Amino acid sequence: MTSSDIPVYKLNDGHVLPQIGLGTYQVRGMQGVDVILSAIQMGYRLIDTSTNYDSEGAVGEAIRRSGIPRSEFYVTSKLPGQYHHREDALKMIEESLLRMGLDYLDLYLIHWPLPKRDNYVEAWTALVEAQKRGLIRSIGVSNFEAEHLDRIIDTTGVVPAVNQNEIHPYWIQENLLKDNQKRGILTEAWSPLGRGSQSLKEDVVATLADKYHKNVGQIILRWHIQRGILPIPKAGTLNHLHENIKLWDFELTQDEVTAINRLTQPDGRVDNQDPNTYEEFN
């Protein structure tokens, strides 16, 4: 599959993103460069990193080594919680660009709202300013709940283009998905496969994998896309990297999507990272 074969989602600011991205959590150093470069060669163009992942340098180096024009990539990074004050945030955005050797980011997100610290509105004003300066094309958030979204929108009048959240079959986030859609915000999914959780072994997923001659990961990623979600998986092997991008030659029925939805659990989060209480690692 080539990059041109991957459909795109249109954002509320007029920009677009491919319907699947590459996660780079724990993908770092020269080995990380090799993994990201392999992904690029397979057709991935949306690459998701973060200052907290320590993979920004590897992302930038892989892009340079690929020989593919910068304009063909969609690079995302994220603001750590310790830099939520406006001037700190602006300097951190510049620092991320310097680390990657890029002139601009396609998407930049506030990584966590950290409501106990209550500086996320100030952080959002910094992202709005950085977008005006041309440092970022699209701005968004990650792990924001409806009340966090409304507060930054009411304060600035600027609606995030993206909200990246934990979503997988054990934590389907149906209400949050609707909240995002109601505000015209694209939902991205981190840990879209549940970090290899038991959900991959559920009978309904295995049965669908057999029916469509796909692996269980492909079934779940396709489930995300049919819900209007952009999944950001990372892959443990080159084979998984290759398979994760082959999602557009089959389609689940609505009943099958609903059957996977029923796997959701009241306490389905992987690491109990509740955005209302979680204190981000620094």
- Name of the top-level CATH class: Alpha Beta
Instruction: Fill in the CATH topology.
Output: TIM Barrel
The count of domains is 1
The fourth-level CATH homologous superfamily is NADP-dependent oxidoreductase domain
Helix content: 25-40%
Supply the number of helical segments.
10
Strand order of the largest sheet: 3-4-5-6-7-8-9-10
What is the CATH architecture assignment? Answer: Alpha-Beta Barrel
What is the string of helix and strand elements?
Answer: EEEHEHEHEHEHEHEHHEHH
Number of strands: 10
- How many strands, what sense, and barrel or not for the largest sheet? 8 strands, parallel
Termini separation (Å)? Answer: 37 Å
Organism: Leuconostoc kimchii
Protein name: Aldo/keto reductase
Family: Belongs to the aldo/keto reductase family.
Keywords: NADP, Oxidoreductase
Task: Report what the structure shows.
There is one protein chain. With 282 residues, the protein is of the alpha/beta class. The protein is built from ten helices and ten strands. The protein has helices at 29-42, 56-66, 86-100, 120-132, 146-156, 174-182, 203-212, 216-226, 238-243, 254-261; strands at 8-10, 16-18, 22-23, 46-48, 74-79, 105-110, 136-142, 162-166, 186-190, 229-232. Helix 4 (120-132) links the parallel strand 6 and strand 7. The model has no long low-confidence stretch (mean pLDDT 95). Keywords: NADP, Oxidoreductase. It holds the Pfam family Aldo_ket_red.
